[in-house]
Every structure is written in structure tokens, then in C-alpha cells.
Amino acid sequence: AERLEVKKGQQEMRRREMFLEDQNYKTNELLNRLDLGLPKSDSCQIANHGTGSTAWMRSHMYKQALREDETRRLEEMKQEQWRKAELLEFKQKQEEKDRMRARQDEQRRCFQSLFIFCSILRVNNAFLDRLQNKTQPTNIH
């Protein structure tokens, strides 16, 4: 019974190993088709080259994944830089608009003050003219 139990255990181990090998083979085949864009027959040939080829493929896929990650990160950084530049440009335009508005308001206030001053000056001059006319002799008229 113990020998039978050991034999069943060994058979189970062989079955699991075969299952894992088959699973690895199918996974490699799928990855080859997806990552490398190879037709199915080419990916089968590559996967059948043995453990050296599989290790090379894993290394190649790892390096390719690293390159893709680096490219993605660089693209994200470019996008972030672009967003920051856009935001900075927007802020600068907003500040310029605010400065223009403030300058226009100041000019408007100055113009209003000048207008009031001119109005007061006109009233004063009219008053002085009337005063002068009263003090002058009437024969000059």
C-alpha cells in the first residue's frame, strides 16, 4: 500500500510537471504572438527551441517590457511638462490681462480727475470773467 501510495505520488508529480511545461509552452506561444506580432507557426518554432530559447525569450520580453515602461514614463513626463507649460502660459496671460485692466482703470481714474479739474477750472474762469466784467467800466463795452 505504501509503494502504491508512493507510485501514485510520483505519477501525480510527473503529471503536474507535464502540465506546467505545457502551460509554460502555451504561455510563451501566446506572449510571442502578442508581443512580437509573429504568426502562430513562427511562435511555435521559437517556443520549441528548448530551455535556452525560452530563457532568451523571457530575457527579451523583460527587456522589451522595460523599454516600453521607460517609453511610457517618458511620454507621461512629456505630457506633464506640456500641462505645466500650458498652465504657466495661462497664468502669464491672466496676469497680463490683470495688469492691463489695472492700467486701464488707473488711466480712467486719471481721466476722470482731469475732467473734474477742467470742469472746476472752467467754472472758476467763468466766475473770474464775471467778476472782471463787474469791475470794468461800462464804457469799454
Automatic annotation (TrEMBL):
Organism domain of life: Eukaryota
UniProt cross-references to InterPro entries, sorted A to Z: EPSTI1
Name the record gives this protein: ESIP1 protein
Species of provenance: Probosciger aterrimus
Gene: Epsti1
